[in-house]
């Protein structure tokens, strides 16, 4: 697929960081009202990507991180042997590219799962601003720490959990992340296809379908296509805590 240039809206049509509905999740969380204008000067808003379009590609020069504003993004890596592994799914308010922060090139690729918009955060400008606003620097350290934890959790997920536990963990993770966005935690849309879920969890697509069907028969989840209509959060948590699963 050839790389396309993302469409850009005028910044005049894009609200500032201070007025963004995701300000309680993203960088403005760490910036006072008095410094918000300085952050606005750094962040480039308005880039829109169609489904399948790359925000950045593996091994290209690292220049910016990106905050997801709408839609959803997946990240992936490809080995020298040609193996392809999805490493994460990102929702509005979350930042992609942090794993490349101290590298000269992107460690992986970021692809839009659906029509999505992002805010570009040029790292040279943000680093300069972070020295002037200590709370912003501290917040970025927290984001990097969370990225490390996410990597560790993925390794643990793929190394010792059953297919049922892996699916339950993913659904519970999405549930809690949607809840943080003040959206229903038990009814939401899956932005990714089942083959992406299978790749991310290290399972066969048939296994993913079989486990989701089992969850429905057990009353743990009702899923039609990509629509999660209901989740039994307590039941899914109990599944993770049950010995021998």
Commentary on this structure:
- This protein has 245 residues and is α+β, with helices and mostly antiparallel strands.
- Helices cover 38% and strands 22% of the residues.
- The protein has 2 domains: 7-158, Sandwich (Jelly Rolls); 162-241, Orthogonal Bundle (Arc Repressor Mutant, subunit A), CATH 1.10.10.
- It has 7 helices and 12 strands.
- Helix 4 (163-180) packs across helix 7 and helix 5 (194-201) packs across helix 6.
- The chain is globular.
- 31% of the residues are buried.
- Mean pLDDT is 83; it is low at 1-5 and 7-13.
- It holds the Pfam family HTH_Crp_2.
- Residues 161-234 form the HTH crp-type domain.
Features:
Jelly Rolls, 22% strand, 245 residues, 38% helix, disordered N terminus, four-stranded antiparallel sheet, alpha+beta, Arc Repressor Mutant, subunit A, 7 helices, 12 strands, five-stranded antiparallel sheet, 2 domains
What is the structure about, briefly put?
This protein is α+β, with helices and mostly antiparallel strands and 245 residues long. Helix content is 38%, strand content 22%.
Topology:
Blueprint lengths: L6 E2 L27 H7 L1 E6 L4 E3 L7 E7 L2 E6 L5 E7 L4 E2 L12 E4 L3 E7 H10 L1 H27 L2 H18 L7 E2 L4 H8 L3 H13 L3 E4 L2 E5 L1 H9 L4
Antiparallel strand pairs: 1-2, 2-9, 3-8, 4-7, 4-9, 5-6, 5-8, 10-12, 11-12
Helix pairs in contact: 2-3, 4-7, 5-6
């Amino acid at each position: 697929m050839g790389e396309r240039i993302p469409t850009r809206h005028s910044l005049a049509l894009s609200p500032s960081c201070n007025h963004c509905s995701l300000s309680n999740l993203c960088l403005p969380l760490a910036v006072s009202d008095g410094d918000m204008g300085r952050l606005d000067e750094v962040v480039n808003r308005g880039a829109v990507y169609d489904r399948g379009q790359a925000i950045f590609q593996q091994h290209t020069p690292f220049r910016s991180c990106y905050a997801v504003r709408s839609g959803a993004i997946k990240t992936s890596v490809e080995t020298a042997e040609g193996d392809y592994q999805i490493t994460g799914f990102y929702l509005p308010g979350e930042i992609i590219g942090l794993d490349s922060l101290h590298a000269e090139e992107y460690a992986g690729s970021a692809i839009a799962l659906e029509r999505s918009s992002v805010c570009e955060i040029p790292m040279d400008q943000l680093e300069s601003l972070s020295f002037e606003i200590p709370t912003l620097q501290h917040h970025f350290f927290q984001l990097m720490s969370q990225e490390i934890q996410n990597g560790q959790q993925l390794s643990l997920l793929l190394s010792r959990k059953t297919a049922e536990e892996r699916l339950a963990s993913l659904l519970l993770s999405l549930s809690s992340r949607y809840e943080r966005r003040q959206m229903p935690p038990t009814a939401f849309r899956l932005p990714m296809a089942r083959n992406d879920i299978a790749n991310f969890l290290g399972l066969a697509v048939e296994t993913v379908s079989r486990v989701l069907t089992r969850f429905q028969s057990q009353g743990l989840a009702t899923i039609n296509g990509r629509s999660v209509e209901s989740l039994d959060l307590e039941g899914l948590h109990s599944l993770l805590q049950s010995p021998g699963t």
